[in-house]
């Protein structure tokens, strides 16, 4: 009987491994087919990413719907997360999860309470260091949304800084060829991905809906705090008011941004040298001195000319 049980267990795990292998092969084949279909039908990969982002946002909203019950409390308890600051963070991050200020504030309180209950459960079960988690778990739940949204803001603005010079060169070339600015933006953004495309797609949609061009530019400024991007939009506003050619504006801004990037790289390189010196001074040099001193002591005690041989 024991042998049959052992054979059944082995057969079960063998079947499970075979099932996982075939499922993985199915996923790989599905990915290849989807990629082939997208190439044949010329589906824009950006649209697929947007659909995936919208599905992820819908799923997140279903999971965090209980946070709405704490939104009023969160709007009042807003340490390190004033309501106007949260609104600015959501705008500058692109708000990929479609959060509102009230839900964000409620999510913060919800995670605070959840962290407290998880810490209490860990303390009851007897996990090691659970008493420390009881103190830091609620704080972690409270500050986690703030840290993540700030990280998303920084990541998005860095992506804009990285793609902006190439975007400006392409638009400048199109405008110099006689294409209007609106048409050049619509065509050029199809070859870019990420926040640059999101921002100028929204800009084009606002222009199509009849929003004044200067107001659409101001909205771009409000949604982004990247210095290079703000410099570009302000130059476009000034060029629109003064009649400066758009192609010249884009070309000058592109050259200035590349020069600024070179200066930033040099600045980072200059800041790296003191850090390397600090590590060398306080870590590598003491260890090297200890190794040399240890070898000298061992040679004095255990070498051919050991001081112990004198006795």
Kindly describe this structure.
This is Tight adherence protein C. Residues 167-292 form the Type II secretion system protein GspF domain. The chain crosses the membrane at residues 6-24, 107-126, 132-149, 276-302. Its main location: membrane. Keywords: Cell membrane, Membrane, Transmembrane, Transmembrane helix. The mean pLDDT is 80. 81% of the residues lie in helices and 0% in strands. The chain has eleven helices and no strands. Helix 8 runs antiparallel to helix 9 (213-223). The chain is mostly helical. The protein is extended, with a radius of gyration of 30 Å. It has helices at residues 2-41, 45-63, 71-76, 83-92, 101-125, 130-176, 181-188, 195-208, 213-223, 227-242, 246-302. Among the domains are: 44-157, no CATH class; 160-262, Receptor-associated Protein, CATH 1.20.81.
SSE map:
Layout: H1 2-41, H2 45-63, H3 71-76, H4 83-92, H5 101-125, H6 130-176, H7 181-188, H8 195-208, H9 213-223, H10 227-242, H11 246-302
Helix pairs in contact: 4-5, 4-6, 5-6, 6-7, 6-11, 8-9, 9-10, 10-11
Keywords: Cell membrane, Membrane, Transmembrane, Transmembrane helix
Transmembrane segments: 6-24, 107-126, 132-149, 276-302
GO cellular component, one term: plasma membrane
């Amino acid at each position: 009987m024991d042998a049959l049980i052992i054979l059944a267990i082995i057969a079960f795990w063998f079947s499970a491994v075979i099932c996982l292998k075939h499922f993985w092969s199915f996923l790989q084949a599905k990915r290849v087919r989807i990629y082939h279909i997208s190439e044949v039908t010329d589906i824009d990969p950006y649209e697929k990413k947007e659909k995936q982002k919208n599905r992820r946002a819908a799923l997140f909203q279903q999971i965090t719907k209980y946070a709405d019950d704490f939104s009023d409390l969160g709007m009042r308890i807003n340490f390190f997360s004033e309501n106007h600051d949260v609104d600015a963070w959501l705008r500058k991050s692109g708000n990929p999860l479609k959060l509102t200020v009230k839900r964000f504030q409620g999510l913060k309180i919800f995670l605070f309470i959840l962290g407290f209950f998880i810490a209490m459960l860990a303390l009851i079960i007897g996990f090691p260091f659970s008493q420390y988690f009881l103190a830091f778990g609620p704080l972690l739940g409270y500050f986690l949304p703030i840290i993540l949204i700030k990280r998303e803001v920084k990541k998005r603005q860095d992506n804009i800084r990285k793609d902006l010079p190439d975007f400006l060169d392409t638009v400048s070339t199109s405008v110099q060829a006689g294409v209007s600015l609106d048409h050049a933006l619509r065509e050029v953004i199809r070859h870019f991905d990420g926040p640059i495309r999101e921002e100028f797609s929204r800009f084009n949609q606002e222009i199509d809906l009849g929003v004044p061009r200067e107001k659409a530019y101001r909205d771009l400024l409000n949604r982004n705090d990247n210095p290079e991007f703000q410099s570009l939009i302000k130059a476009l506003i000034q060029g629109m008011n003064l009649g400066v050619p758009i192609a010249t504006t884009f070309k000058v801004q592109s050259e200035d941004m590349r020069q600024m990037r070179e200066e930033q790289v040099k600045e980072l390189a200059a800041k790296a040298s003191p850090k390397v010196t600090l590590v060398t001074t306080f870590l590598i040099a003491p260890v090297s001195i200890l190794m040399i001193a240890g070898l000298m002591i061992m040679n004095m005690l255990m070498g051919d000319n050991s001081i112990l041989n004198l006795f």
